[in-house]
Amino acid sequence: MTIQHVSTLAVHAGESNHSYHSVTMPVVHSAPFVFHTTAELISVMAQKGGGNNGERVEYGRYGNPTVRTAEKKIAALEGGEDALLLSSGMAAVTTLFLAYLHPGDHLVITNDVYRHSRLFSENFLRQVGVQVTLVAPRVEAIAAALRPTTKMIFSETPTNPFLRVVDLAAVAALGRDHDILTVIDATFATPVNLQALSYGIDLVLHSATKYLAGHNDLLAGAVVGAAKRVQPVRALQGSLGNTLSPGDGYLLLRGLKTLALRVQRQNENGLAVARYLEQHPKITTVFYPGLPSHPDYALAQQQLRGGGGVVSFTVAADLMETAHFVDALQLSAIAPSLGGVESLVSQPALLSYYNLTPVERAEIGVSDNLVRFSAGIEESDDLIADFAQALAKIPD
Ligand SMILES: Cc1ncc(COP(=O)(O)O)c(C=O)c1O
After folding, report:
1. How far apart are the C-alpha atoms of 150 and 181, rounded to whole Å?
2. Ligand 1 pocket member 219 (CB < 6 A)
3. Could you tell which of 121, 207, 374 is best to mutate to test the pocket of ligand 1, judged by most ligand atoms within 8 Å of the CB?
């Protein structure tokens, strides 16, 4: 039968093994993998034709059964033919870039992306001769930046930290018309809220550290799409060695089974907190794609099944008053991640963008009073009560 629903796929997809009659996929802690006879070795090698699809491998740098099960589950969740897991979201970003971009090639990357994806493009890729253009996360800006040498369009949706939503059908059409690889970092969306591949996007990327794993306890990255498009990234990973460990593969697999439940709750919590903050006199702006005031609300309504758990907002306060408000929150720990079961909060000016000057921060819209909240799976009433008491501490 064909499974229709993400919540069912999250539990069952990829899980065909039942080794040792175990309900759950065991953690296979082995670096090399054995062949019973040389005839078996030759037959496996002949089948692989010198390549590697992550299935029957001889060495852990090329694949692992536990990790492979998680890859299959993620591929099914995204509606992709294949998925590759790597040791972090940044391993996924950088290995993908290195696999597809060569000196003389041109990359168009939207400017509201995870800081290190942007830094790697602006610094490292430019140094090795890749041309890089940063544009606003709008399709007209992307189209205007294309050149004959453009090989990749890369964006997040929703973006980090301003939750802009990118028109995926239009981006995919640009890619098709100009023979350009389109890549979407869908970390904030998750496959519960969006399947970017269904819009014709070529590859979807995740920091699986966030919602996919969901428990703030591991680092992982994923690249999903047609097998022939994932393959160059898998081949390069075999040389770079940035593989996911079997233990983390198991934790990810375990986390994935509750993905739909968690994200549904995080959608509810994100929306409830965004609505609460928007009407609060001490809050100046709320960035959340599920609010009608968001510039991409209409697109978000069409494209996303939920607004997600991240809410960014500015407080009517200066840098240190905002910091005191953040300190006063009792249910949200101050930490630079998102998507886990525990709510987290960060003040980007003092965390991810600490080493920029106020002028540099202003250029990318990161003001002193900007706060990014990542809803966990707590009860929204409790989260709102916590915001209420912390906001009450901001001086008039
Ligand atoms: C949208 C997005 N992409 C990629 C990354 C990098 O992922 P990781 O921290 O797993 O390397 C992050 C991390 O915050 C992110 O938010």
Report:
1. 9
2. yes
3. 207
> Could you give the C-alpha distances from 392 to 106, 273, 321, 322, 343, in angstroms and in order?
49, 16, 12, 12, 20
CATH number, span 6-256: 3.40.640.10
The C-alpha R_g of the chain, in whole angstroms, comes to 21
Report the pLDDT averaged over residues 48-55.
79
- Which of 165, 210, 216, 217 for a ligand 1 pocket mutation test, highest count of atoms within 8 Å of Cβ? 210
Alpha-carbon distance of 83 to 22, in angstroms, equals 24
Amino acid letter for position 234: R
The protein residue with its alpha carbon nearest to ligand 1, atom 7, reads 89
Quote the pTM value. Answer: 0.97
What the block records as the tokens of 148 is 């004959």
Is the pLDDT score of 187 beyond 90?
yes
Residue 207 three-state SS: strand
Quickly state the pLDDT bin for 358 (edges 50, 70, 90).
confident
Active site residues: 61, 114, 185, 210
**Is residue 112 scored above 80 in pLDDT?**
yes
Q: Is 156 in the pocket of ligand 1 (CB under 6 A)?
A: yes
Digit-coded pLDDT (tens) for 194-231: 999 999 999 999 999 999 999 999 999 999 999 999 99
Q: Output the CA–CA distances (angstroms, integers) from residue 190 to 197, 206, 226, 237, 243, in the order listed.
A: 12, 8, 18, 23, 22
Tell me the per-residue pLDDT of 62-78, one tens digit each, with 9 for 90 and over. Answer: 999 999 999 999 999 99
CATH number of 259-391: 3.90.1150.10
6-256 and 259-391 in the same fold: no
* CA 193 – CA 21 distance, rounded (Å): 34
Assigned token pair, 194:
């969006």
Spans of all domains in the chain: 6-256, 259-391
